[in-house]
């Protein structure tokens, strides 16, 4: 009898995805990183003040709740209004979901690394890269639509990746595809960008496989659910002339296609994050042990090409960072196990250097120091300070008007930043509802035609041709003379409108 043929075996370091059970979840180090990050975000959650976008979401949710908006969908305004109704004016409460979502993103990145076959070290490196990403950490400080997207994208990518790994092991788990569709259904209530992720993901599967996924009923059931729940927002968009297209033009005009990729990598992390993104993409394309996951590389490349062509902000790609961090960390594991990682000792110094930028961006520095060094904490300083002084200045001017004039006075903010701050902080100071011709605020409506006195809050005087008289009544001075959006803004009184507001409002819309 011939000798039995010896069956080939795979070493753990050489096993492709799906041929072995995934390594244990690195629970202790990963949850430690996630917990410490969430703790840091909560400790600083009450510093400085509201972000201008948070004020916009609060105003939209409290006073203008609708099925859709020009620049996002109703989930975040509804959540912001709900939290504020329970704990009015509490910044820690408002920002708790953002901190929890960031912690979840850290853990989700480690779980993706585990699906790729990553050991404890790889999972921890991937999780730490997420925690040190300047954009992912900074956006975890705010309740904003951009904060939700990275976690939602991870929640789409993880079940799809797990489905592929289990399929490679001969296990069918179609409920994972349905779960991805459920997440997409929630995601379209945040921003429509998740639709682009799903389209790129399906295209990646069509290009690189596994194509049998496209024949699974659970996949299309999830897609149908996401499409069904987006119908109210689509009806709103159609009824308002598809303003999301206008917002796309605004984003394209504000963005540089040449700087999109470099800025995206800077947002991912100036050292460790950027390198892991590039190396992770390379591994998904070239590493045979990750071959079943090659569709993820196609997904990332398709999205990058799309935003390069049509224009997009760098943070639009931040939802891919966790997946690329995970692939890069596992790629280094493969090299380490093959004895080719002679520079592996540089990992932790690189991570230490990567911590500098995100910690500088967070509102940790005391405001007196920020005032003395205006180059510090630029984003937080610009958009999180000055709002109380703005509201108090406008309220002082409004209260100085005779009662009969106040009854026919409208307040208009030059931008959604200013209008949102006045709408949220103004009622306690006696201010009426605020209007603005800027972006999504324009759709909240014009002042009534009975308003013949206007208090215009802004840095320019674009309405001067439409009124008989104008005079500057006040200028906003913020605490410590901080340089921010509110600093130096004027309060201008206009009298004698030449057109009723119903005719003037379409003429003064700004983007």
Explain what the structure shows.
By secondary structure, the protein is mainly α. The protein has two domains: 22-361, no CATH class; 385-507, no CATH class. The chain has 24 helices and five strands. The chain has helices spanning 27-43, 52-63, 75-86, 91-115, 120-131, 134-139, 145-168, 175-187, 193-208, 217-229, 231-239, 243-254, 257-268, 272-286, 294-310, 321-337, 347-354, 356-361, 367-372, 378-384, 387-399, 403-406, 416-425, 501-504; strands at residues 409-413, 434-435, 453-458, 467-475, 490-497. The chain has a five-stranded mixed β-sheet with strand order 2-1-3-5-4. The longest helix is centred in the N-terminal third of the chain and has 25 residues, at 91-115. It starts with 26 loop residues before the first helix and ends in a 7-residue tail after the last helix.
């Amino acid at each position: 009898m011939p000798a039995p043929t010896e069956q080939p075996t795979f070493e753990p370091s050489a096993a492709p995805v799906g041929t072995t059970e995934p390594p244990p979840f690195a629970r202790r180090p990963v949850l430690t990183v996630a917990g410490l990050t969430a703790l840091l975000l909560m400790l600083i959650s009450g510093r400085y003040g509201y972000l201008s976008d948070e004020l916009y979401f609060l105003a939209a949710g409290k006073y203008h709740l609708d099925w859709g908006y020009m620049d996002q969908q109703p989930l975040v305004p509804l959540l912001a209004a709900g939290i504020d109704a329970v704990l009015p004016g509490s910044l820690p409460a408002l920002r708790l979901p953002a901190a929890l979502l960031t912690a979840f993103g850290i853990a989700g990145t480690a779980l993706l690394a585990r699906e790729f076959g990553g050991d404890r070290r790889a999972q921890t490196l991937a999780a730490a890269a997420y925690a040190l990403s300047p954009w992912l950490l900074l956006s975890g400080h705010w309740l904003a639509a951009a904060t939700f997207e990275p976690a939602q994208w991870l929640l789409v990518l993880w079940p799809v990746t797990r489905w592929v790994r289990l399929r490679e092991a001969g296990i069918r788990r179609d409920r994972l595809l349905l779960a991805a569709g459920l997440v997409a259904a929630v995601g379209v209530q945040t921003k429509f960008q998740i639709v682009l992720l799903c389209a790129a993901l399906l295209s990646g599967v069509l290009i690189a496989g596994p194509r049998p996924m496209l024949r699974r009923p659970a996949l299309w059931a999830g897609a149908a659910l996401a499409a069904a729940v987006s119908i109210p927002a689509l009806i709103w968009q159609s009824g308002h002339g598809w303003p999301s297209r206008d917002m796309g033009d605004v984003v394209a005009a504000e963005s540089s296609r040449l700087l999109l990729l470099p800025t995206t990598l800077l947002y991912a992390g100036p050292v460790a994050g950027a390198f892991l993104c590039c190396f992770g993409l390379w591994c998904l394309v070239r590493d045979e042990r990750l071959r079943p996951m090659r569709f993820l590389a196609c997904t990332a490349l398709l999205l990058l090409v799309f935003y390069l062509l049509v224009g997009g902000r760098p943070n639009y790609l931040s939802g891919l960072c966790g997946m690329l961090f995970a692939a890069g960390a596992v790629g280094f594991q493969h090299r380490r196990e093959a004895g080719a990682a002679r520079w592996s000792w540089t990992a932790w110094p690189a991570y230490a250097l990567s911590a500098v930028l995100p910690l500088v961006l967070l509102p940790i520095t005391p405001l007196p120091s920020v005032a003395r060094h205006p180059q510090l904490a630029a984003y937080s300083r610009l958009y999180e300070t000055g709002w109380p002084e703005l509201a108090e200045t406008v309220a002082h001017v409004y209260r100085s008007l005779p009662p009969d004039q106040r009854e026919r006075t409208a307040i208009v903010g030059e931008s959604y930043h200013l209008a949102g701050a006045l709408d949220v902080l103004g009622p306690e100071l006696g201010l009426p509802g605020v209007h603005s011709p800027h972006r999504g605020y324009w759709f909240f409506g014009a002042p009534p035609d009975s308003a013949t006195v206007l208090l215009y809050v802004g840095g320019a005087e674009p309405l001067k041709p439409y009124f008989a008289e104008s005079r500057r009544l006040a200028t906003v001075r913020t605490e410590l003379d901080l340089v921010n959006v509110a600093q130096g803004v004027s309060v201008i009184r206009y009298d004698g409108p030449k057109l009723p507001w119903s005719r003037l409002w379409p003429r003064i819309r700004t983007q």
